[in-house]
Queue: 3 jobs
Job 1
Amino acid sequence: MYSQMLEARIRSNKMKSIYDPVTVLANVGEKRQAALAELGIVTIEDLLTHFPFRYEDIQVKGIYEIEDQEKASLKGEVVSEPVVSRFGYKKNRLSFRLKIDRDVITVSFFNQPYLKKNIVLGEEITIYGKWDEKRKSLAGIKVLGASSSSQDYSSVYHTTKKIKQKTFVNLIKAAYQEYQDFIPETVPEALREKYRLISRKEAVYAMHFPSSEEQARQARRETIFEEFLVYQLKMQFLRKKQKTANAGVSVDYDIARLKQFIQTLPFELTTAQKRVVNEICADLKKPVHMHRLLQGDVGSGKTIVAAIAVYAAVTAQVQSALMVPTEILAEQHMETFASLFDPLEVKVALLTGSTKAKERKEILAQLKNGEIDLIIGTHALIQDTVQFADLGLVITDEQHRFGVNQRKTLSDKGTEPDVLFMTATPIPRTLAITAYGEMDVSSIDEMPAGRIPIETTWTRPKNFEHTLEFVERQLNQGSQAYVICPLIEKSENLDVKNATDIYKRLTAYYQGRYQVGLLHGQMKAEEKDTVMETFKQNEVQVLVSTTVIEVGVNVPNATTMVIYDADRFGLAQLHQLRGRVGRGNKASYCILVANPKSEAGIERMKIMTETTNGFILSEKDLELRGPGDVFGHKQSGTPDFKVGDIVSDFGALEAAREEAAELVHSEHFLSDHQYAALREKVNQEQIETGTFS
Ligand code: ADP
Ligand code: MG
């Protein structure tokens, strides 16, 4: 009843706000609300900022205007009956001839026989597809219909099966229609002028429905600047608060016991590890908050550094919490820490979504009475029911996977605990400082001695049989292998291999000799765990996977990594994937299978074969990627931002940081009307509740 009244008032414009729930829209009922929520869309603002991840050029072009392999829309008259022919295993092709001016070309759609009904002999039609210059043929992606629209670009959104692209576009149009006058100009006028930014209202529209490439570029500039500015402000306020708050607690650890612990380790710390341990310990001891980022390549030994910090906390009799993004990773850490700490009578516990109720109850009690020294877990750790006796140290692994909110919620459970963020996506130091606001940064830029570097090669897809033979030779020596594919299932994009297909192919190839498993993001957590477990136990020797494997999987017996369509990934991601092998004492291999079309793609493949140092790779990445390609794919190492990319939009990030630093110290920021929208935006994300009041 109450909510109905509220909605009626909202509809009558009296108190419309961009933060209204999506249900205020006429065609959003309960079902659609739930479907939108799955995409993280709750408010009108969420909806309006769920930007397309890609645009398709639907402006009709002539065949002499386009290049080989370019995606474009062609319009012509259907001059042959469409025929569907079958080939291979369950495959079919729908083809017909299309007359464009004086030329006749062939159009083919693969595995979409149902499109036949849309193609009528003698009628005019527009097809979006990929042009093959040599064959004078178009590999169809979409039938755009007979009428050419006034727009040149069609937006493509990340959605689920429950909401179709068309529906989504309509929802956004409806939301814009009703709320365009309530879109706040978050970036203050002065900055808007200084950086020549278009209005937010214009930008939001053009992000969805650009009428030209230039307009899309301007919309993107505005959006990125706002996003970076809000983020930097949040970071700076956090930082300011930490600096001025009542002194943080000093973790007064026992240096003698700590040294003893380090001596019991089965190896000597690298110089880089020693340096960062010193940096962290100094922070712990100081009565201020540690707010430090620990970055280092996969395998550089961050975990042991974290363990040393935890042990320091133990000797100071405070508790520690380690939060990781996935259950697999949590369990792995549990094993590592338990074996490290068992002899020392340090009590470690694991808390995840699948912890049984009874065990959970017990763990919560022991956390509260201080029996547990270290709790390892997933998001489950930030629930209200989780309370500590004395939480002194919070560590988050793969920090970029968590929102600032989640990290903060965990820290709030202690009285000013020290916080360490770990990330295996090394980025150049200068960039890190800017990207993470005013965090302190520790870098492990060297690998433990004696590691056999991973040997990386690049091969073309036509040599795939050879690749499989090579993999088999490794399997014959008792090792295991990963095969990574960019997608789960067939997509419109014909030349991208998908995990399901590759899985079938490899199962057939290795039949009777080796077991092949399949892992992808649309599987349930339990299914994923089962597959991972069989791989860990070596019941499965070859694991075909999408990039879900990326975060923190550790199977030292896996020595070979094959990455299919490797040019579809950015350097950072390739590097992450490659880091899944080379974790044992056997020689490891990474095979990039790719047919890159662009210079940059070729360059990326080459660089990957030349170095395994993540810091060098990230510097190269910085060099290679110029200003962001508006219509290209977004590949970001740090998915903190919806649109902005800290590498290619570095200039904007730096500008935003400078402006934020000034604003945070300005007397007028908290009172002046011109900053009201910006204040609300920062507050809305609830990072600093209380900061402004
Ligand atoms: P990261 O978390 O940075 O990916 P880990 O901490 O998991 O890396 O370390 C990878 C492996 O290297 C582990 O098996 C660990 O025991 C080992 N290791 C860590 N530091 C050293 C060192 N200084 N010398 C030899 N091996 C080390
Ligand atoms: Mg790690």
Job 2
Amino acid sequence: MKNIIIFGAPGSGKGTYSDEIVAKYNMGHISTGDVLRSEIKNGTELGNIAKGYIDNGQLIPDELMIDILAKTYDALPKGQGVIFDGFPRTIAQAEALKTMLAERGDDMGMMIELVVGEDVLMARLLNRAKEQGRADDNEETIKKRFEVYHNQTAPLADWFEKEGIRNTFTWKGSKETMLSEIFAAIENNA
Ligand code: ATP
Ligand code: MG
């Protein structure tokens, strides 16, 4: 399997579709949000640093994030493809990922962009707040995360376009439709 980068706003379904893709194609999965939340839960030094940023809806600094990503990637088994969920989120992270993979004789594979309207995103995240109680899923922090997404992350879509690997999927109200379109694109790219 080729690598996959899954890209989209908070609440766009990166984690949900990643789980489906991983189950179907037996790939590795790196969710940087999950890595950070597990560090926080374990009370590590990295977790303590990350918590300040996450609770404020801000991004963890690039240097730190790039280091975490490389370590997580190197710990995964090779040869079955990896889905990158929540990374890259800045141009600097994207350039670093491209370089890191090239140094290992690998490449970014394909990028899957999830496009969902902000009203739907907000409703999903507020609902997740009730179900999972994530500290950053409250209205005030969600608004900051949307702003950070627009300013720092959304511009990356053009970067992927220039790399020639951007594949956009727009939410039309059905997870099944979205999934079958995504699976078809992955199989087309294989
Ligand atoms: P969702 O999981 O619903 O797609 P999300 O994109 O906001 O929502 P995560 O990807 O879990 O959630 O990220 C949660 C937080 O972790 C971010 O708001 C940010 O503070 C931090 N974080 C995760 N990945 C990165 C990254 N690549 N660079 C910087 N900060 C990150
Ligand atoms: Mg997620």
Job 3
Amino acid sequence: MAKQKIILDCDPGHDDALALLMALSSDKVELIGITTSAGNQLPEKTFDNTRKLLALANREDIPVAMGALKPLRRELIIADDVHGESGLDGAELPEPTAVAEKISGNDLLAKLLRESDEKVTIIATGPLTNIAIFLLSHPELKEKIELISFMGGACFGGNITPHAEFNIYVDPEAADIVVKSGVPTAMFGLDVTLKAQLFEEDIQEIRAIGNPVARTMADLLDFFNLTTTVPFLAEEGHIEGIHMHDPCAMAYVIDPSLFKVLPMHVEVETSETLALGSTVVDYDDLFEREKNVLVGFDIDLPKFKALVIDTMAYFSK
Ligand code: RIB
Ligand code: CA
């Protein structure tokens, strides 16, 4: 079966790193390019982190371009409290050897879609600024997009405010443009990504695989384990795993059977209220509006973990 061509827009970011490595190791997808977003860290850092991850995976052949320096109309907020000063704290990463691309993220997206003789799936694992800019500046290329699979939002709850998830909160206007774009879209929000948990024993299993990629990922997960949030209402004695948010958006494209997704109407709150940045998901179809987004609600965790282990083992070849 032919591989699905994909482009990753990411802000590495510990969980972004695993999503990227999943793409490189899967025989279901062909990663034809990467654009980097400002979110977990400053744009220069997420760009450098992406290039370092490709150097680690010995895949510097894949074009990488830096996207927008800030959200569409807001000041950038970053998640250095979660991902550290570098954006990928906790592991030593190799310096890239390839010369950095001079092309902008928006131009790389346009180039790759124009040149592709088949539709391309875009996986976005950071704020949606780059994707919104692309959709607004190249409406003629929307038909070349098979699907936009993004990590962000939530039907219920938030992680940066009580109602908003980080990726959406950083650039709510961009997210609203994406979900209203008419392009097929799948949303992997906290409802499902908080279930995508790895635990101490999984990190040990990954480290034991022993190749440099697996050992580095284990180091990154050890760090991420220190900064990941525990749901407020976790019962006494409850052991919360590490939330693998971004890999959900990638894993769905690799194997949709891993997830329960439902079509729902989704809009994004962009007004300056307590709910700013919330994804308003019409779970009970109360508005009776177009079901514009596939929303993820459940995951086959054993199969997801197997995919993670397969990803790490791939780099032993
Ligand atoms: O809320 C989780 C999201 O914010 C993930 O994409 C993580 O990498 C951070 O960007
Ligand atoms: Ca991310």
